[in-house]
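Q: I have two molecules that I believe assemble together. Could you output structure tokens for the complex as a whole instead of separate predictions?
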Amino acid sequence: MTGKIPPLKEVIVEKGAQGDAFARSILDRLTWLPVRRAPSGETELDVNGLGAGKKILYLLPYRGQFLKPCPGTKEYICCGYQILNVGTNCPLDCSYCILQAYFNLPYLRIFVNLEEEIGHILNRIDAHPEKIFRIGTGEFTDSLALDEITRWTDLLIPLFSARKNVILELKTKTDQIERVLDSNYRKRIVVSWSLNSPYIAAHEEHKAAGLRARLQAARQCQSEGFVLGFHFDPLIFHRGWRDGYLRTLELMDKYLDPKRIIWISLGAFRYMPALKWVIRKRHPATCVLDGEFVAGLDGKMRYFKPIRLEMYAFMKENLDKWNHDLGLYLCMESDEVWRKTLGWSPNNTEGCRRYLDGRVLRFFG
Amino acid sequence: MQEIRLQDIEDRPGPYCMSFGYGLEPLIRSIKAVGLMNSPLLRENLGGALHVIAGYRRIHALKSLGYQEVLCRVLPESQITPLEGLLFSFYDNLATRKLNDVEKGMVLRRLSQCLPEDQILEEYMPLLNLPSHRTTLFLYIELEARLEDEIKLDLARGNLALRAARMLLEMDSRTRWSVFRILSNLTLNVNQQLQFIDYVVDIAKIEKKGVTELLHEPVLVELCTGEGINRPQRTKAVLNFLRSRRLPTLKEAERRFHETVNRLKLPQGVSISASPFFEASQYRLQVLFENGEELRRKIVRLAETEGLLALGDPWREKA
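A: Yes, here they are, computed for all two components at once.
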């Protein structure tokens, strides 16, 4: 996606969001769109409504916890990330996206009470000065794809940048960096991109910015003082995957200074079994389901272990050739896979958390 | 009440019918023994056509017993709206028996022609023991409307799993039929039905061919119809074949692992197994013994077993 505002058809304002200042400010930026008021409780759509749902902005108050730990499982090592749940779903349409499994709530949901609740979140962070909070908004949506509408970064960057025990990671597949660059803050903000092979980026990451555009945006952020992160997640086993990922690494080398990269994560594609038929139905030409998948210890489908080992080892070997200190880590993998591919293991989630917190301290003090 | 000639009653499932895949035998036995206890209820339209509101199966049973006439309650269409007729039939069925999945689809499809969707979701889905989700509502309506009668019959009788039927629904009718023919010729439990469909859809996609084309491959046809082996053996052979083709690396690893373990010639009562799909890092050693002496003997023998050091990741071993 390279346009500033995604092509929307309608805004729905749920009862609890009507009259809300944040909702009003969003509506003021979308004056050409029809606005519909709705009672509380969203209309469920079936899988056929998923595409249409991506063109409807749904403003509502969120009644759950805004800040939640990443839902890892005990069978695999998790990085101990915290998700700031600002909204769900995104205008991009990646064929492998896990959010498609939540197909009964397909709209672009924006939680309008974030501004009201952010104080509580900051209080929680401030109450634990000994702890480092690695927080991201890009788990249930793209951190920047809707930023021109929501101005999430205007609100969040100053608040998080001012604190010593937190970093805010803005994870995206877009090149929508204007508002981030306009901010006066750089400290404790990590701008990160999800990357893939050129083939996967072009054929499976529909409506995302092209690979080159993402890396150009990353270069611009880096040149303006931002620390960067990258996520090869999901790694997809596809025809020519070695050459493809190598090409992406070459582009990274061309555009970026590896010394200002805080971390690069690797995660082979995995999915809840229920996602498979949604992908088949919505993306019949996709190649993401073609690999050899088996049920993992957490019940999710993942590539058979030697395939994952091969992919991670390949990425590690070639990333090492670029730079030895990229903060490589694996997302949701076992101690065994860590050892056999990266050559070491944090042993458990706590160890992985310490490793990444250490990277935060090194980059931001 | 009127005596009605059975031949004057609409024979095909009409707008109120919610019976499918039933067996008439118990009803026939009952009628033979004590006669018809409850009269059917009919609706007569202005043209004189008689539609069954309640008693569809009773009328079929009477016909098969050779009855010519039956005492019915007949309501002219001015006295009962189509919705009232439908609800009468619905509650009558609900009170006396459990509806199968196809019948639930019949109910929901008919209700959806008379009532708003929200009302069906809120009031009627729970009565059918279904979650009040639009996706579920559409699924049941589609199953009833689009599946062929033979497939519906297997679904109604519980031979075909609902989830398998849903997967069949995603296919065009020719593909669906070719998959169903094999499914009904094998002995597959629910998980195996899902696995079978999943394998053939995946393999066809990966190998860029149609599912029907895949299923017509001579090797698969031979496995499915194989003579000299019974149905469970055929089922196992077909699933094994598809699994090997879909997961060749896994299958090869399993083969090498079993070969390595077999070469060890472990003492009797000692076995080594891998975790499912080798996903866990460790293997499991099991030793059966009656007493400490036998355990000691087996441990010593095990320690002296040649080739133990060959155990490891089977995908690293040389073929």
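A: One point stands out. The CA atoms of residues 316 and 342 of chain A lie 6 Å apart.
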